[in-house]
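Onboarding guide, step 5: your first structure request.
Type a short instruction followed by the sequence, for example:

Predict the 3D structure of this protein.
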Amino acid sequence: MRLALIAAVAALALPALAETPAVTASSSPSPLAAAPVSDDPYLWLEDVHGARAMAWVEQENARSLAILKADPHYEPFHQAALKIVNATDRIPGPDLIGTTVYNFWQDPTNVRGLWRRATPASYATATPAWETVLDLDKLSADEKANWVWGGANCPPPAYKHCLVQLSDGGEDAKTVREFDLQTKSFVAGGFTLPRSKQDVDWLDDDTLILARDWGPGTMTASSYPFVVKTLKRGQSLDRAIEVFRGKPEDVSVSPTVLHDSDGHKLVLIVRGTDFFHSETYQLTSVGVMRLYLPAKVDLHGLLAGRLVFTTLEDWRGHKAGDLLAFQPDELTAEAVDDPGTAHLVYSPSARQSIEQVAITAHYLVAAIYDNVRGGLVRFALGKDGWSATTVPTAANSSVGISTASDVNDQVYFGTEGFLAPSHLWQADLASGAQTDIKDLPARFDASGEAVDQYEATSTDGTKIPYFVVHPKAMKLDGSNPTILYAYGGFQVSMLPTYSGAIGKLWLENGGVYVLANIRGGGEFGPKWHEAGLKTKRQHIYDDFAAVGKDLIARGVTSPRRLGIQGGSNGGLLMGVEFNQHPDLWHAVDIEVPLLDMIRFEQIGAGASWVGEYGSVSVPEERAFLETISPYQNLKAGVAYPEPFFVTATSDDRVTPVHARKMAAKMQAMGLPFLYFENTNGGHAASANQQERAERVALEFTYLARKLME
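The system replies with structure tokens like these:
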């Protein structure tokens, strides 16, 4: 559950158009003590699809797009972005289902996308023989729908029937339909689950286990389900059998079914009591039983009957961040200490983090980062415990696991860097053989660029690392147009990635790009994240400002040439920095943000993030939120830089409400701003390649206007 939610909330936690196939109860407030309605004159903008609100959106879109699209930067940027996103030599990211490689592909002809497949041998060639499995453009036209691909769940051992997820315009709520991989068609009379935020998995070929909206009183305040039922083939939803019920004040309850190559199956139900804490239960033939896992845990899967997980807190003698493997029956009772080391797979150091774990038929493989530089390690279980073998990868690069087979020991992984295009490798973990099967062509001229890593000192003395991508001939005179990017939340790490858009639209034009590894992220494990939780979040904002000041002190840039960019939780970061240090930045690019931190629990899925931000129902936490909430702290008479708000009507997670209200308040104060709200795209603010190219071109046009002129 936690991994799915983090993946969701961090949808914009990567730089624009990064072309990589791999690299990525107690706290929920009741009642919600939000600001009185009379205190907020812009509540009408919270009616997301209301006529008055949409009229305001259309007006602001028209005004801002007229400015940005008339700028001489826009059309060259747009054409360059279109060329990047529509390039046919992009690496088609692999997804192994059984022994077959699947891929979801979008281009100008297939705007909504094709789900297609190839054999591994064909996929490894320059021109794979792709077989179309599902044409989303045709399906949408036939059904007169606005379908956006949401993925497919195709379980072992047959890998025949799948649960395909489709959303309207990119929202989080999905429609789920049974699909036959052999006939390449939806199953007539098969499982069909109407639109809902839902989690569903296969118990067997004819039975599902699922959590969804079952009617009034079955969704949490965070807008996620808390009732789990089983559904037999041919049954209507009202005949599904309840097997577990959480509480309305939970964040969510979700089922998952784990398999390994030895035929073991483990059915789990995860009750998220807040975003980071959970209780884990096992569904057996005789009922539901508690598994006493850490309350803060990342579940990875099943190998040789053992449940593999990372503890995110000190637990049973293991420290936060350790990778562990236990037999489920070893977790049925509470224990104080873990006897021996047989359960310990790997214990990272203080400057390391385990970013990904995948499981093949016989091995674990993990992407482990050391001071934000990636590596890959294979772990094998023997009679004396776990042994580690380094998988060779490029030095000083990011490493990400694209997909791993649960039938054999094949794994695909990618490597990349700020200036190094993505390479996709195929490896056999059993033999150690590796093949570099696909290389992304360079999207920009990097011959004149360099990358350095520095550290800034935050207000409490903590060293904050950051990367600077810059011209080799850069003069340290403060004149360099610079974008500073960060995220700072939810234990999401910011890693070096290859972005054609940043390179082509920014670096080739003399710009500097900076990625900051501030607290709140996961770059150095759970403690780096916890250092910025709730009332400690000012550390995050101080870290970011410290990096900005360090750049200025080094002569890399100056306030006139320094712009900042961030999305989602990073959009909140932008809003706070906009308020707290308006004199440090000349451009603030605020993507799909949270900004009203007094009402955030009542907007979209906001109540689910109380574990990260705190709650206004807790006096101490509310007092802190009042000091940092961008919407409430906006003041007349301050010389703010002109920001650019980017959001989407169909974002049902953060919603466009925060950006709308902040912009409207600025409008009433006579403060300048630019605003773009895409109707499609959900939390990513773009649903297809053409929309992505437009959004990226608009954002870089704004940044160029502010920093390069």
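Each response can be followed by summary notes, for example: Confidence is low (pLDDT under 50) at residues 1-14, 20-37.
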